[in-house]
Design brief:
The protein has 399 residues and is an alpha/beta fold. Helices cover 46% and strands 16% of the residues. It has 2 domains: 158 residues, 3-Layer(aba) Sandwich (Rossmann fold); 196 residues, RNA polymerase sigma factor, region 2, helix turn helix motif (Rna Polymerase Sigma Factor, Chain: A). The structure holds NADP nicotinamide-adenine-dinucleotide phosphate.
């Protein structure tokens, strides 16, 4: 194919300075070098606090647009003059994130901001009918029903980046009727710990994930297994799959990224060494499968891959995840906000590890469930749940 026939992809990465964001930059660099059929341009990037890394990426790729979301709109000029390449439009604040997500020149949006902070910009990309590569699972947890409705209206394509959901997506690609989705979970750093031992877990121990290198919030979520709870809810919305057709199995080696059992009894799985560049590339290039830059399985050596059920007594987050996936409505926004607040308190050394999931349970049970909340109401409930967790933590510390 001649250069003039090559398809042009303009990619925007929201959260380019994070673990998924930097892996996405690597994938785009790899595709730019190796894809003979398309050109890959980093059109826009955002970062929050890490302006050093944002500047470094901007100077390497010279994107049209950069957003520094932690700064006020009137601070843009100072940052722009200081560090970014000439010709790059620099914007500040959350409104610029939304504007970049809906920019008509962006055709692929990678939603890689962590937490509920990624909600509005991800929704803007969905509303604008883009291909949205969703790493920001919290958007689906908070507003999965709304995302589905908006995507149906705008024609947006939702491509999962979470390795489990990317695996399920690939398992379903061959057609057939699925009977159940089996999400695998590494079990995190406390897979073999007793509840008593987990009560005393330190921040460093909770952050030390055995198989994945990730941002802090998702690392703590993996240790509590709230990450899997969020993924159950994510799968419910992404695949329109009832909660009782989803299962979770512990697979400590993180090689089988998830499985789908079909109605004829066959089970299809997707396997690879753990490396997020693979699902990211899949989301960017789908439906094409292009040569990757990640390690492959070494099948010349004996391997032992195990699957075991989850102990929900030690990991009560799993039951919470199924419950929220079952009831939908306002439950996702409440549990997600409670979890973000509780993880923040744990990382500040103000909450015990095992209280994170307890706080989420208390917030869920204290709220009056609403089956069809508006997006404004979801944001109110988010604030309420955060305040509820802070109040509970103060009361627990005082008693
Ligand atoms: N890491 C993984 O392997 C993995 C796998 C599957 C799914 N995910 C999901 O991907 C998302 C990102 O995870 P991550 O591990 O990449 O997180 P991370 O390393 O902590 O990166 C988070 C990104 O979001 C930006 N950010 C933080 N707070 C923000 C705010 N209030 N407003 C706007 N931007 C903000 C950060 O900017 P600064 O760094 O500049 O402050 C950074 O670019 C999460 O939803 C996570 O669950 C991650």
């Amino acid at each position: 194919m001649s250069t003039s026939q090559r398809i042009e992809h303009h990619v925007a990465i929201l959260g380019a300075t994070g673990s998924i964001g930097t892996a996405t930059v690597q994938v785009i660099e790899h595709l730019s070098r190796t894809d003979p059929t398309a050109s890959w341009t980093l059109y826009g990037i955002s970062g929050h606090h890490n302006t050093d890394l944002l500047t470094e990426i901007a100077n390497r790729h010279r994107p049209n647009r950069v957003v520094v979301s932690s700064l006020e709109a009137d601070e843009a000029k100072a940052v722009s003059d200081a560090a970014f390449p000439a010709g790059t439009r620099v914007g500040c604040g959350p409104d610029e994130l939304i504007d970049l997500a809906g920019d008509p020149r962006v055709d692929i949006l990678v939603a890689a901001i962590v937490g509920r902070a990624g909600l509005e910009s991800t929704l803007a990309g969905v509303r604008a009918g883009k291909r949205v590569a969703i790493a920001n699972k919290e958007t689906l947890v908070v507003a999965g029903g709304l995302v589905r409705r908006l995507a149906a209206e705008s024609g947006a394509e939702l491509l999962p980046v979470d390795s489990e959901h990317a695996a399920i997506f690939q398992c379903l690609a061959g057609g057939g009727t699925p009977r159940r989705i089996i999400l695998t979970a590494s079990g995190g750093p406390f897979r073999d710990w007793s509840l008593e031992k987990m009560r005393e877990a330190t921040i460093e121990q909770a952050l030390a994930h055995p198989t994945w290198q990730m941002g802090k919030k998702i690392s703590i979520d993996s240790a509590t297994m709230m990450n899997k709870a969020l993924e159950i809810i994510e799968a419910r919305w992404l695949f329109d799959c009832p909660a009782d057709q989803i299962e979770v199995m512990i697979h400590p080696q993180s090689i089988i990224h998830s499985m789908v059992e079909m109605i004829d009894g066959s089970t299809i799985a997707q396997l690879s060494p753990p490396d997020m560049r693979l699902p990211i590339q899949h989301a960017l290039t789908y439906p094409h499968c292009l040569p990757g830059d990640t390690p492959t399985l070494d099948l010349s050596r004996t391997a032992c891959w195990t699957l075991e059920p989850v102990d929900v007594e030690r990991f009560p987050a799993i039951s919470l995840g199924f419950e929220v996936a079952r009831v939908g409505g306002s439950a996702g926004a409440v549990v997600n906000a409670a979890n973000e607040q509780a993880v923040g308190l744990f990382l500040e050394g103000r909450m015990r590890f095992t209280d994170i999931v307890t706080a989420c349970r208390i917030a869920l049970e204290s709220h009056n469930h609403e089956s069809n909340p508006s997006s404004d109401r979801l944001l109110e409930l988010d604030l309420w749940a955060r305040a509820e967790v802070r109040r509970w933590q103060l009361r627990s510390n005082a008693s």
